[in-house]
């Protein structure tokens, strides 16, 4: 095991600890503001994983789009509805909570068993990739050739979501002034 | 490939997905449910990118970018609903949203 390998393992463990810790913090913290900040930590540590998997462009997009734009929107909305952040952590009867936890654990156990079974054969050796694996040029070329339909559908989905957001906001303003009901 | 193999990344992605599932099922605040939903999407994204690296093809990364765009759209609509609830002075609690039309 050479020095570079050990360094990658250290970075991997640091990213994994940050990733799982902040994911638990998102679920466990009572305050939505702190949960959103924990999610930013989760997104950044996932970007470290993407860099280790030589997905440089996706890591950059993750930090810019997610940790930047989407989370700023979250924080704005949390500040806007800040008058009501003390919702009970969890609700309903206790069997509901227990069932939720058990279902999540069962899901994780299934996934881990399948991965462990596959880890010994198919997943053992990652293919060698060239230096420009995951750079913007090759991803853009794929988006405009093989995955052109997906690219166009994504743009339509984003457009519809933007229109939907505007309609949701505008309608509630009209009802507040008593225009419709 | 230096460091841990693909299976280690898949394990972390699965764990993040399971934690997000628990969050969606347990929490009552729709804002935190949206945050936990983001966790689930990101766990799936990590698995996609790990498989892209393992197979040496870029299609997984392209799909991960598509998932990111869909997540952004979902956040826009979800936060729009939360803001509409706040404007109507409905308490921010998912149990009060069991019916969409009042």
Descriptive report:
Chain A has a domain at 1-87: Four Helix Bundle (Hemerythrin (Met), subunit A) (Up-down Bundle), CATH 1.20.120.1200. Chain A has helices at 3-28, 32-52, 56-80, 94-119, 136-144, 148-176. Chain A has six helices and no strands. The model of chain A has no long low-confidence stretch (mean pLDDT 85). Chain A has 181 residues and is mainly α. With 102 residues, chain B is mainly α. Chain B has one domain (6-97): Helix Hairpins (Orthogonal Bundle). The longest helix of chain B has 29 residues, at 59-87. Chain B is elongated. The chains are: A mainly alpha (181), B mainly alpha (102). At the A-B interface, helix 1, helix 2, helix 3, helix 4 and helix 5 of A face helix 1, helix 2 and helix 3 of B.
Task: Show the helix and strand layout.
The complex is a heterodimer of chains A (181) and B (102).
Chain A lengths: L2 H26 L3 H21 L3 H25 L13 H26 L16 H9 L3 H29 L5
Chain B lengths: L5 H21 L3 H26 L3 H29 L15
